[in-house]
Amino acid sequence: MAERLVVIGAGMASGRALEHLFEADPGAYDVTLFGTEPRGNYNRIMLSPVLSGEKTYEEIVTHDADWYAENGVTCRFGETITEIDRARKLVISEAGETPYDKLMIATGSAPFIIPVPGKELRGVMAYRDLDDVNAMLLVSSNPNAKAVVIGGGLLGLEAAAGLQARGMDVTVVHLMSHLMERQLDPAAGYLLQRELEGRGIKVMCNASTKAILGTENVDAVLLEDETVIEADIVIMAAGIRPETRLAVDAGLHVERGIVVDDQMRTDDPDIVSIGECVEHNSVIYGLVAPLYEMAKVVAKTLLGEAAAYQGSTTSTKLKVTGVDLFSAGDFAEGEDREEIVLRDAASGVYKRLVLQDNRIIGTVMYGDTADGNWFFGQLKDGSDISEMRDTLIFGPAFAGGSPLDPMAAVAALPDEAEICGCNGVCKGQIVGAIQGGATDLAAVRATTKASNSCGTCTGLVEQVLAATLGDDFVMPTAQPVCGCTDFTHEDVRRLIKSQELKSMPAVWQACEWKTSCGCHICRPALNYYLLSDWPDAYKDDPQSRFVNERKHANIQKDGTFSVVPRMWGGITTPDELRAIADAADKYDVPTVKVTGGQRIDLLGVKGQDLPHIWADLNKAGMVSGHAYAKGLRTVKTCVGTDHCRFGTQDSTGFGIKIEKRLWGSWTPHKVKLAVSGCPRNCAEATCKDIGVICVDSGFEVSVGGAAGMDVKETEALGKATTQEDAMDMIVAFVQLYREHAKYLDRAYKWVAKVGLDWVKEQIVEDLENRALLVARFDHSQTIYQTDPWEERTHGRTARSFAPLADLSLEAAE
Amino acid sequence: MSWIDIGALDDIPLRGARVLKTQLGCLALFRTHGDKVFAVDDRCPHKGGPLSEGIVHGASVTCPLHNWVFSLETGTAQGADEGQIDTYEVRVENRRILVDGTRLALGMAV
User: Contacts of residue A177 in chain B, CB cutoff 8 Å?
Assistant: First the structure.
């Protein structure tokens, strides 16, 4: 008589295992199959097309009633096993006991329901089986129905795309900073987000769910930042967990999943387990390919044949129509690893290969995934790719071919090929202009308008110049931002504005960055450009700032910091001085120094004391002096008409007003000002970035001074008769500098590049433009004029100044 | 080995660092781009700069004092600079960070 095999779970893993078993030896076992769902096995990974309406349930059934009958399987669908009794070798369900000789646990996984208030409301559902899909479809048929999907992973995005295809208003709420962070790097995650948003799906990253609101049915989702998103249904797609309860109760060895050996055996020799519920070599799998490999092995084990499962390398494709995305292997960076990145900004293509010892160990592709399986094949085979390394990223079509010569490619373009998309200029027109005497980039721009708008085609135009002129053309050697890109600071700034690039991944893609996340040179520059051009849309990234700006204090050579409170216009009070003295005592400050900017520097403060000393100084009414910032530093003043017998205006009062208007703003480099009350210039205004000299008839505003590595006198910008007029001129100049200068160019360097005449045109002659500059500056200040000390003296940010943990106090063993 | 849970992955900002005090002195724990965590000495061999305050890019960190760049995987200084920092074993499980307490107590670098 055949042995009795009981299978718990009628999903894809056990379905495939039974196929192998019956193929090899149809009579070996009498099989009883239990499944909680009231139906047999279907292709669960094809639920997304069912949800979106591209397939029907019938099309995804893999085993129908006839198949089970032909193979003599006793089907017990809709019946849940509640207990395994290993001593008596039987399983228990509501209907009674069923004995086994061999038992296969294939209980799969259960969706992780995040523990927030409201999770039990009607309308909150997982996305796991056909019943879930049917429930979603019921709601989606209502007009204007809204869905919130919690979780921007594979499953969540497939659900979101499906519901959106059914006409629902869909928002994806994702805890991490980019979509599908387990499969994609940030660059590909950004492209995916852009694609989904283009379809009308709202995507919120860095969004943590606080509660689900409603009385009986779901009404809305509340985020930690108090955002409320209306919802008729909420899909929980925050992850899955191996379903191990039965195994735990039965006393089997269970870690995160049911632990199995290479033969898929649990620690009970009569019980095997496969699928998403198992843990093999500390790895849990949630994709179908490994499940199928396990199914093969378990069939052999059950038949007493030798077989070993050796773990799987997995690849992922997102099953959303029109989204081409592929990822496989390990794509984290590492020093012993190299990467090849190809970005094509125009067609939205991103490909990244991670190499180790001349072998592909990981790949992420977006936009064009045609070569995905070929790369995956190379990865699984561990092929040595050194021979074809130069052309590897171009895929099998070029494998083994000679490296591409970009010049040859441009030379081969036909005359009607479009070079400049913005202005519709084709290669023939450019060649014509060159032959007509336009022999450099500027001349070509002037005659044809090519590369005159967004500038992305500049490189192509230069190649056309080189191909047409031959050796007569010398390629200009513009300095790129850093080794991560070929674009210059100026190009990057222009593209950020013209293409409305509002995030780092957007810039990396558009400017064809060659690294996955930039470096210590480009990241601070990009962070500045983005926050100054898009104060609303872009969020400042502390991890892209140099230590001083991240810590809001100046690091000293011994790793301690200096703290400088603001003293408006250099004016202080006895109370402030007492508070500073008390703080210096309390925190053992070794050095107290008066600075050149008319304030007091406390040097030698320990990093972990920073939030505390700031809190004390805040209490006395003082705020950060930004002595560490590429931003507004100080406005130095003399005492003016208040006390001085020569003073012509209230230079102190005006200096304070300027400082109160400008403080907190970020600029390409530091900005220092001074206001002197008369031409004797005691505040030394003529060697500052902006200087004001008060005279009887008004205010002389001059700019572009320096007294550091270079010493330079300011040049006159204009004369104002009123304080308001002078103030507008100063604010507009700062904003013009903020919008146009290269990161780390002081104002004098920038003025020398653009010319003082151009600056005057913008600010002194064009009053309408001046007003717009002032308005943009003031708008930015509504976001950035905040005291960084006050924000960091409490909560999570304050804790970040302390060690993560202290193990030094534990007793040594 | 005795693995000690010292905190959550999310306690370290992405591409950021936190300090861990040990009997060997301060270690810097870095979280990179791909959510990998590395532990190295929090002290640049050049002039003693606190590496935990540096900018993290790829699997490297740039010292905040004089821009020396170190591999977080091997601890070797990159480019023209020559130097080495000790690296320590660290594991991430269920978004928790674990360090090897035995090694830290015995004072052995990996």
Answer: 14
